[in-house]
Amino acid sequence: MRGRGSPHFALDSCKRLILSLLFLLAPLIIAEFQPADDFLLACGAGGGTALPDGRLFVPDSSSSAALSDCSSTALSSSAPPPLYRTVRAFPCPSSYVFHVAAAAQAGLLLRLHFHPFPSPSLNLSAALFNVSVSGVPLLSLFSPAAAAASPPRPLVREFYLKHNSSSLRLTFSPASPSTVAFINAIELFSAPDRLFSDAFTPIPSLFSFSDAPLSNHLLETVFRINVGGSFVTPDNDTLWRTWEPDDKYLQNPARAISVTFGNHIQYRDGGATPEIAPDYVYGTARAMNKGDSSNSSSPSNYFNISWNFPVPNSVHGFLVRLHFCDIVSSALNELFFNVYINGYPAYKDLDLSSQSSYTLASPYYVDFVVLHRSSTGGINISIGPSEHSLPSKINALLNGVEILKINGVVSSPNEDSRKSRHFGVIVASVLGCLILACAFMVLVVIMAQRKSRKDQMPQSQDADTWSPLPVLPGNSYLRLTELTTASPSNNPNLQLRVPFFEIVLATNNFNENALVGAGGFGKVYKGVLRDGTKIAVKRGTRGSQQGLGEFQTEIEILSKIRHHHLVSLIGYCEEQAEKILVYEFMEKGPLRDHLYGSRNPSLSWKQRLEICIGSARGLHYLHTGSAQVIIHRDVKSSNILLDENYAAKVADFGLSKLGTSTNQSHVSTGVKGSFGYLDPEYFKTQQLTDKSDVYSFGVVLLEVLCARPVIDQSLPWEQVNLAEWAMHWQKKRLLERIIDPSLKGKTNRKSLKKFGETVEKCLAQYGIDRPTMGDVLWNLEYALQLHERAVHQEPGGDSTYGPSDESSSSVLQVSTSAVTAMRDTSTAERHGKSSTDTVGLANKEAFRPGRNS
After folding, report:
1. pTM surpassing 0.70?
2. More confident residue, 111 or 436
């Protein structure tokens, strides 16, 4: 067990003081984190190695982890720290297999220790190798000697991962037969609950991070900084981490002063814990140096303190965790300040009093997902005064920074694992259901009584009635709402309002067993209204600045349109600092889950074509079905949902943009969207058109055809980007080589050829060369008819992709009457007619015998 230091006093003179200290430290010792799984391996060692923090590393040869015979050991002749005096080397691929308990499936911390010390038997300085965990890359072409300083020093690489299997395989593979892989020590232990959650704010707020929850991604620690303090060694950290000082990253040091707190840090229920960061971090900080206003670098009290952290020189997403603890104020509500990341306002008017249950010296942390490109020159973090600060109380502070690189998903939880994980919760829920039912009955009665008085109360009072958290002056959410001019509160569609207590009833108080998804906006729950209607409830993350804009956009868009290929908005709730959207429930979930990453059965070619056609109809309606063009701006497979009959509906309009009219050529706006789907022309010019949706939909078509993610960094570099890789084969007219293996031999070659040509047009570099969504729809209908005609007329005779006798006809080749009919589609829908009927007439004309066949 890790020990905590205490002052050395003579027992006869300080006995009472020591007893008092032990009494104060007793709760901390009792509550110290004890991992369910704890593998500590001294690789190549002949005996146990004890560290100053009290932990014992056992030889890897005697551990429960399986070890390949393809290995050798070496002993250092120098005197590095004990853990780095032996090494296990591998001239060929070798693995450790760890058997982890169920508790570890919530998350694992993995630390790999390397030290390329001089050895007469092994050339460790020339080692170049790869490291993977259960097939997912951790380190690629890793050279410890190149990464270390000269002379070589020990290195530690730390990772956080989720793993839904009872065994974990850690593999070391030399890059070539002439080199070796090696490892000095391994730490693998179960992480505390909620060490990393799925709640974060994206920076900038112009991109959608990922379909998978953040906590399911592999995270690699890049920086861990004790701001304003000294080194924190593993024996003084609750999770045996190392925190380095911020001195070499601080910009313009004259603007900042170090602050040290001499009293107890007030950890509270529901907030930061010692496992999030130790009191050595929360007890030190950097604050504004206001005492030297004559300094030319800080001529007034209005300036920022900045840090710059050089991160890997490539395009990556990073998790940035900032730690705060108000150790400078003498009273509550004195400290308001702003936080900026890479120049973007990450947190405006941060009030630590309201975030820490109105307690001073109470720690608080917040997570951001930051898009980084090599041209930005690192991740820059700044803090500075807020306009809400009192002139005499202007200040800002920061206690700690963690930056972790976000890699691929190790394993995505499926429905079965979710059920297993929550089995104990289900049992407890059954035992407590009677109590819960009684509580809800009381809730309904109270709400009914308050409803009778509702007309006599101002609207704002109704919003405060059921607040689960204090909603007091100075709350960041309230200030954000007051500064927003387009609040849904002013929306004329008041009939869409859903009372908060109805949503609580429908979701069983947001029970985790009802959780069906999560994203940048928040979590999504399945619910059932009292009339039996199944609903999907999207609950915004409290305090998310991105969420408010998306919330308003969804209501503005979906309150104006209705279409059987667009997910319907049932209502919304804006009470008690909650932002909740209620939709119709789509039984089969996202299209993405039926293509890869789940146990759903493979879709047939006909099903895939019908899903693409339904999605295209929904997007075509957005572009042409109203006086204002609606550009979705986030078309991807996870935003196409399927009902119980596999009918497709487009969803998630939080990033959508309204044009002024259907004649407008483009909308100038900041770039928003998702990696892999983003229109390159829009990215370069920031001019958004409906052709940007066409490009994204073309990527979705490839996703449907190939059944793989659009960005997969675990693949060879030429295959990472699906659009680039697929177009390489499409231009060679060999697209059949990369289609979903379950489709091979089951697709009509002419149908597949037309599908590939459609995709190629959608992915044209310039929007002017891309078809409209109406054109795309016609060609998908044509591809389906080619497939069905082959099935009915030539069973088994024309099912595979091969050289086609079909002429290389234009994707846009349709009859004049068909064009006229399709252009009338949006008019028919505005007058209440079914778009399906109108489109059907157009398709009959476009694909009549003798044309394009």
Report:
1. no
2. 111
pLDDT tens across 575-608, in order? 767 888 899 999 999 999 999 988 899 999 999 9
Confirm if 408 and 217 have CB atoms less than 8 A apart: yes
CA distance 110 to 37: 11
Place of tokens 């800002």: 396
Q: Token pair of 377, please?
A: 């020159």
pLDDT, residue 555, reads 82
Pairing of strands 207-208, 673-674: parallel
Asked if 58 and 50 count as a contact pair (C-beta separation under 8 A), the reply is: no
pLDDT of residue 547: 61
Give the tens place of pLDDT for each residue, 813-852.
Answer: 333 333 334 334 443 443 333 333 333 333 333 333 333 3
Q: Does domain 416-584 have CATH number 3.30.200.20?
A: yes
Burial class (CB in 10 A: 0-12, 13-18, 19+), 328: buried
**32 or 749, which is more confident?**
749
Radius of gyration of the chain (CA): 30
Burial (CB count <10 Å: 0-12, 13-18, 19+), residue 802: exposed
Is residue 269 part of the annotated active site? The answer reads: no
What local confidence, expressed as pLDDT, does residue 446 receive? 56
Burial category of 135 from C-beta neighbours within 10 Å (exposed 0-12, middle 13-18, buried 19 and up): exposed
pLDDT at residue 332, as a whole number: 87
DSSP state of 247: G
Q: Which residue has the higher pLDDT, 675 or 745?
A: 745
Reading phi first (left if > 0) and then psi (alpha if -120 to 50, else beta), residue 296 is in alpha
How would you class 422 by CB atoms within 10 Å of its CB: exposed for 0-12, middle for 13-18, buried for 19 or more? middle
**621 residue type, one letter:** Y
Report the helix count and the strand count for the chain, using DSSP H and E: 19, 42
- Average the pLDDT over each of 225-229, 342-346, 757-761 and give the range with the smallest value: 342-346
In one letter, which amino acid is 379? I
Query: Out of 211, 634, 693, 775, which one is annotated catalytic?
Result: 634
Question: Which CATH fold would you assign to the domain 589-846?
Answer: Transferase(Phosphotransferase); domain 1 (1.10.510)
Nearest to 499 by CA among 598, 572, 401: 572
Q: In what order do the strands lie in the sheet with 305-309?
A: 250-251, 305-309, 379-385, 336-341, 344-351
Higher pLDDT, 62 or 341: 341
**C-beta of residue 40 within 8 angstroms of C-beta of residue 183:** no
Residue in the structure block whose two tokens are 């974990």 = 168
518-534: burial string, b at 16+ Cβ within 10 Å, e else: bbbbbbbbbbebeeeee
Which class is 38-190 in CATH? Answer: mainly beta
Report the C-alpha gap between 806 and 789 in whole angstroms.
15
> Residue 844 has what pLDDT?
34
Taking 60 as the threshold, does the pLDDT of residue 223 lie above it? yes
Helix (H) or strand (E) holding 584: strand 580-584
Measuring CA to CA, which residue among 344, 346, 354, 334 is closest to residue 396? Answer: 334
Looking at 484-498, 504-518, 727-741, 794-808, which range is the least confident one? Answer: 794-808
Say if strands 108-114 and 129-133 run parallel, antiparallel, or are unpaired. unpaired
Other Cβ atoms within 10 Å of 149 Cβ, number? 7
Structure tokens at 125: 């300085």
Q: Taking 60 as the threshold, does the pLDDT of residue 16 lie above it?
A: no
* Fold of the CATH domain 201-409: Jelly Rolls (2.60.120)
Is the Cβ–Cβ distance between 798 and 790 less than 8 Å?
A: yes
Q: Which neighbouring-strand residues pair with 190?
A: 108
Please name the residues in contact with 653: beta carbons below 8 A apart, sequence gap of 6 or more.
553, 554, 557, 558, 630, 632
Residue pair 175/143 in contact (Cβ under 8 Å)? The answer is: no
Fill in the DSSP letter of residue 332.
T
Return the domain boundaries, the chain.
Answer: 38-190, 201-409, 416-584, 589-846
Strands 38-42 and 56-59: parallel
Decide if 416-584 and 589-846 have a common fold: no
